[in-house]
Amino acid sequence: MKKCITAFLIISLLSGCTPWVKPYERDNLAAPIMAFDSNPVDSNFMAHGFGNREAAIGAEGSGGGGCGCN
Amino acid sequence: MQKDQEAAAVGVTKLVRCLFLICPAFCLVIYSQVSSAAVLPEDRTDILLHNYSGDNSTFKGPSILVRKEFKETYSAWANYYVDMNSAASIDVETQGSKYTEERTEMSAGIDYLYDSTVLSASFTNSSENDYEADSFALGLSQDFFGDMSTLTMSYSKGKDDIYQNLRLDPNSNQVTGRDFRGNAAHQRFAIGWTQVFTKNWIVSFNAEASVDEGLLNNPYRSVRFEVPTGSGFAREREIYPTTRSGQAFAVKSMYYLPWHAAFKLQLRAFKDSWEIKASNYELKYIQPYKEHWTFEFRYRGYEQTGAEFYNDLFLSQDDTFKASDKELSTFQNSTVGFGITYELDKSWIWGLDKVTVNLFSDLVSSDYEDFSNKRESEGIHSEGKRAGEESPFSFNAQITRFFISIWY
User: Fold this and answer.
1) Residue B109: enclosing H or E segment and its boundaries?
2) For labelling alongside A64, which of A1, B103, B229, B386 has CA 20 to 30 A away?
3) Are residues B268 and A59, on separate chains, in Cβ contact within 8 Å?
4) Cα B186 from Cα B86, distance rounded (Å)
5) Are the beta carbons of B278 and A56 separated by less than 8 Å?
6) Collapsing DSSP states into helix, strand and coil, what is residue B167?
7) Min CA distance, A12 vs chain B (Å)?
8) DSSP for residue B386
9) Bridge-partner residues for B106, per DSSP?
10) Do the chains contact at A31 and B278, CB–CB below 8 Å?
11) Structure pTM?
12) Does A17 lie at the interface with B, CB-CB under 8 angstroms?
């Protein structure tokens, strides 16, 4: 997975050498379907659930405190 | 190993301090590049009901998230979230008895917008009858280069008080008191960079360092060790190291497709000082349909290796670190899910900006490599197998959420 992330980073940086995206060209980026987290109440709930059942922590958004996991 | 754990924790702490010094300096150097303003999150309220059902356990309850802007530069939010648990999972069934309990989480925060900078602060309290947790978080988000790039940083610190409930009858759900078992402290430092690459593609790179100290194991859980008689095993308490440090790296990409749809790809890699290595990926496709509908389909894959002190069945009783929690074993899971969103017609919402009704559901299938199905040798469903002869454990869980979102 680390190699995948590194490869993605390199490809992204190479592809990123593109002309400036002007504000009036950002309609598509501003569409609600393009939000990284369009439903925070749901993503917080899911992140908490995965966090309780998996050992990995972080870099994907917080799942709140506490346990709820016995 | 204790020294290794402490050295790793010190290393991460130094990294956090270093990043705290470097990042503000970096912000100052390129502050002159800032040319336009950031925005606060939208005003909205979400009312969610959730239901988790899997491995003879259910978790259900509401979550209400309210956010409102005031004085044009502030946005405050509050979240009230309840988990009502009824659990007879494999851990509960083989090491205790079925129980019901409730966890209440309350959090609140505020964001302050100044030109291209958003400063954030929040506080969270989580309360169960045997677990109290408080944490605070501080965050900074800074837009650069005409909003083409966004730097985010956050730091959070939390403290837990951990108890063990006492019961006169171990088979009863009636709690007669609780014993204090210890404290745990948690620190997280995250840094991210979001970049607009093209008019259809945006990518976010994130890294997070974590440090956990104190009582990190569940006081109800125990490990098995071999004995020559009876069912072939006996139990003793788990012993975890008292420090743990981890690092996670993630990439999130959103791509706009020409037929008005979006594709999301998310990758994450994680490793920690307990020798756990984990990775996951998620693919999501979002497709609006006609004027009111939006459909989502997603797949998530996750895998991890076990902690170096994990074992399903120890050879002997001793005082070294030991754990048998399935969360620290080698396993993988996959999640398949869908979401349906219906946006109500403007004529129905009496002056509100937007109202959506949402139904999301996911099926999570978990397969454990070295965590055995102990129900075959213990508990009320025992098949009479000896410890070590059980088959690997696996289970499915269905997670359903119904929520209404209101923008105003």
Assistant:
1) strand B99-114
2) A1
3) yes
4) 27
5) yes
6) coil
7) 8
8) P
9) B80, B125
10) no
11) 0.88
12) no
Token pair of B302 as six digits: 């996750």
Query: B135 contacts in A (CB within 8 Å)?
Result: 65
CA distance B31 to B23: 12
Mutate to test the interface with B, among A11, A14, A22, A41 (most CBs of B within 10 A): A41
Within 10 angstroms of residue B319's Cβ, the number of other Cβ atoms is: 7
Taking an 8 Å cut-off on Cβ atoms, the answer to whether A1 and B281 are in contact is yes
Say what percent of chain B tops pLDDT 90.
71
Distances (CA, A) of B351 to A32, B206, B355: 20, 38, 11
| Chain A residues with CB-CB distance to B208 below 8 A | 57-59
Contact B53, B398 (CB under 8 A): yes
Distances in Å between the Cα of B178 and the Cα atoms of A31, B96, B271, B401 are: 51, 16, 34, 33
Render pLDDT for B352-392 as a digit per residue (tens, 0 to 9).
Answer: 999 999 999 999 999 999 999 998 887 666 777 888 889 99
Contact B52 A12 (CB under 8 A): no
pLDDT tens across B53-111, in order?
A: 999 999 999 999 999 999 999 999 999 999 999 888 888 888 877 778 899 999 999 99
The span from the CA of B156 to the CA of B167, in Å, is 35
ipTM given for this complex: 0.88
Pair of tokens at residue B35: 């040319």
